[in-house]
Amino acid sequence: MTDLRAALTAQPVIAVVRAPEIPDAVALCEALAEGGIAWTELTFTTPDVTRHVAAAAKAGCRIGVGTVLTAEQAREGIDAGAGFLVTPGLRPAVAAVAREAGIPVVMGALTPSEVADALDLGAAAVKIFPAKAFGPGYFKDLHGPYPGIPLVASGGVNATNARAFLDHGALAVCAGTDVVPPQTVAAGDWAEITRRAKAFVASLD
């Protein structure tokens, strides 16, 4: 878990891919990496996602799986080679599977009580969702009672506000449709994905 936190500190962007199809998961991850985003989260909302995770993991990509709701999905993701799991909310069964496998989980939360529960469940980091609804200042507020807590901003984060989330205490941010629009991914337009990733990363400087 410490390793994940350190790695996210060095490269604080996770691309979250929600696409109706992924023609080439390895090419997708490589396009993002070329643009400066090393971490990719594929989600269970994409059909046959574990096949894509397995291909990317075999190629050495920093790949995780998200929208993990059940213990069964957690096991499927880990068996496919996911290096980390992400949940949209508090999922004790998912946390138990991740803990047993030694795989870090980034657990979704919103309220201060949920943040505490996520930490108690062993989350390596806590994903605040939807981040845009509460704004960057909310992250500074959470660090009052929870100093040093690893928070990840997710939901409505884009090139215009990502820097503000980091400045107010987020360890990392999730880049969604601003970088990986579903139809662009489905079309396999990797050059456009790289362009968008570069623009997002540049906004953090």
TrEMBL record:
Keywords, comma-separated and alphabetical: Carbohydrate metabolism, Lyase
Transmembrane segments: none
Recorded metabolic or biological pathway in which this protein acts: Carbohydrate acid metabolism
A GO molecular-function descriptor: lyase activity
Keyword Zinc-finger belongs to the record: no
InterPro entries: Aldlse_KDPG_KHG, Aldolase_TIM
Pfam families named in the record: Aldolase
Subunit structure: Homotrimer.
Family to which this protein belongs: Belongs to the KHG/KDPG aldolase family.
Name used for this protein in its record: 2-dehydro-3-deoxyphosphogluconate aldolase
Source organism of this protein record: Kitasatospora griseola
